[in-house]
Amino acid sequence: MYFESHDNCKTSIFDYHRSCTECSFDLCLICCRELRSGQLLGGADPITLEFPFRGRDYLHGENLDKTVNQTESNDATEPLIREWSRAGWHAESNGSIPCPKECNHGFLELRSVLGQHFITDLLRKASGLAETFKHETPDKVCLCSWPDRSANYGMRKAASRADSSDNYLYCPKAVQLQDEDLGHFRWHWEKGEPVIVSHVIDGTSGLSWEPLVMWRAFRQMTNTKREQHLDVKAIDCLDFCEVCLSLFTECFFSKIVIHSHEVYV
Prior knowledge:
265 residues, alpha+beta, 3 domains, 5 helices, 10 strands, 15% strand, nucleus, metal-binding, transcription coregulator activity
């Protein structure tokens, strides 16, 4: 898939669009229609975001240098200059659209990204897959959806709508599952219905996601053959700097301090 954005409205290219014959200027079909009608929208001036410069050492995790000139900035904050203008840009009398850039008088021709036979080939491949696997269509009604059998088929009441057959959700237990339970689960899953699976932790080998249990497991690691990534580096997105975190303390306690920054997790 081609995700290059158009030069005017910045929308993503999916298939059909117009591209200049002499340069890389692209225009979507909606912008072409607006241009022919004299009501071209989009193409607003670029927005420049200015961030305070706190020193290059600060960007790499060091402390803030208060002596740095705050007016210093990098090239990324300089405003972008548009290479073309919409002033005086219009379609020709025959409907053709000239390129707004100065590229030896090129014009925008209709092009396709996916190709002429893409949809036909896609349908043919889909039909081949359906014929190969012969996917069975689920029955229209499941026995567990009957109100009088909801308790016996592991259903849980989720709504009380009148004259509705989907007030109950399938809620199987993840223990002592049989082959028919898997088929039952697939039936509801293929219909796009939500399924609530209970007693999942009961089938695990004592695994716990409690913070203190995980913290003790990290402290008790004794396998020297495996590299212990206990000190990891992260990016402070608020300050655009790199910080170091210790999994022993920072990840399992409520308050941590990084380079005089207080962070709450």
